[in-house]
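Q: Here's a chain of 458 amino acids. Please give me its 3D structure as tokens.
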Amino acid sequence: MISRRFIRPTMKLLAVAVFAGSVAAVGQDAGTIDTNRLLSVEACLQLAEERASTLANARRDMEIAGARVRQARAQAMPSVKLSTSYTRLGEVQYAKFSEEAEAVPLGSENNYSASASLNQLLYAGGSLQAAREAAHIYHRMASLEAERVRLRLERDTRAGFYGIILAERAVAVREESVRNLENILKQVEDRVRSDAAPMYEELAARSRLANERPLLIAARKNLQAARLSFRSMLNIEGDFTLSESFNFTAETPDPDKMVREALIRRPDIKALVEARNLRSCALEVALGDYQPTVAAWAGYDGTSPGSVFNGGNEWNWTWKAGITASWSLFDGGLRGGAVKEKRLDLEKADENIRQAREAAELETRQACLAIDLAGESLKAAKEGVILADKTLEIAETRYKQGLGTFLDLSEANLAKSAAGLNVLQAMHDIAVALADLELATGGSSSAENKPSKEGDVK
């Protein structure tokens, strides 16, 4: 059984493990990644954060949420408006108030007016405060969504990175197998020419080699597909080379501790809690509709001299102020239906949180189990490599001495290739399981899962 420790150092150390002298691909300018050099997993993570469109859109959503906070805050602020007008009369009307009186003009050809108004909402039954709080909640939810997207992107980047490493090593194993079979074929041909082996052994050797080459072609195609997918995810232009390979083991973290971390740290659970708070604000807004709305207003108006409303020789300025109140007493049950809907939404939010916590626990325990199983598989696969190497060595010696058959030699070569691929697959599974655990726990920073020494699986 693999001993218990924790995660994050392993995620960093497994990226540093194999090729001595490998360096992270950092360009000449600070913070710039040169994709023409060797790319470490950390450099790829930096590229993902800089170039991934999903993360860019999540950050835009955060900016939109910030704008909504400002809009909600503005509702509590007074609104001030200024207005002016100009009227040109085609003909000025005159009026006489008696037969003896002189005609008086009703206005002038050019008429001007100006006004300023101020409005302030004083009370809205708590709806205004709930709307401001809802805007802040929306901003926090956008931030949590950006964090969730970042963690998913980090997981996919790590999985894609180690998927390429696995595909590269699988190609190397298949190429070595083809070379071994080509050497075996030469030995068989020499023995057939010297009448030390029947012709059917040469035919069998050619058949075995022919069957191995399509596997090599398939491995190369898988590598190309993995590289294309990785290039698309990180928006990498041109070719690139990865700097690490597999050469690590991992230790299983404590599932119970990881579950506790997940329930505290996961951004999707936090977002659901904020969503519940948002529905609570919506309920407050609905209840606020039962309350009156009170607002204060003030105005300052002026008219130019000689206008209809100003017969003097100077501008006439007046001010006014007041308070307005409105209260809806009956709406046919409209508000009652809205309140019931918001309360049911609140109950649904509670259920969503419960389900998310259960899913988080399941995903975390599955990731811990996957690390454990991959570690056991790696231990068994390494033992299989040792046995396969020894078997192939014995089979080659026996065949050269004429004591073994081509079938023994071919089967030993096949067993060696399979054992090598099993080791690579187990190491890849550990890397992906660690990335899955990092995602499942919400990027736990308290992890201490360290890789043990090469070949030492505890």
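Q: Can you summarize the key feature?
A: The chain has a mean pLDDT of 80.
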